[in-house]
Input
Amino acid sequence: MQKFIRITQNWNRPKLEVNALMSLLINSLKKELPDFQKNNVKINAIGGLTSLPKKAQKVLSEVIDATKTNTKIILT
Output
């Protein structure tokens, strides 16, 4: 039987590592947005998004909003 790690356990990582992961998320979302639009990809997110840093929440929200009318692929 496979065990699943709760995502909240990631917050126990060293602060520097968490910050690096959040920067990776933010930079990836910004970089990939033109491709999401070009390929008609709609971005969704689930889970405890309010646990994310404010900047990550903001960028994620912007990408979700920018892709909300895309219909070819849904990426959650």
